[in-house]
Amino acid sequence: MLEGNGRVEAAKLFGMTSLPCVRLDHLSNEEQQAYVITHNSTNIETGFDDGILFQELKKTTRF
b vs e for 1-34, b when ≥16 Cβ sit within 10 Å of the residue's Cβ? Predict the structure, then answer.
């Protein structure tokens, strides 16, 4: 799942068993990582999720 974890958890609290979603299966792994980082940065007013950002940056770093 690239995003929507909070939405899924909220839905569970309300007893929902399904949610609409958009599949992004056509994206490469690098595109998925870029999407997660970009999506995370759009929340700049509310702050980054540093844990997720660190995980994604760590994946993209090549040694």
Answer: eeeeeeeeeeeeeeeeeeeeeeeeeeeeeeeebe
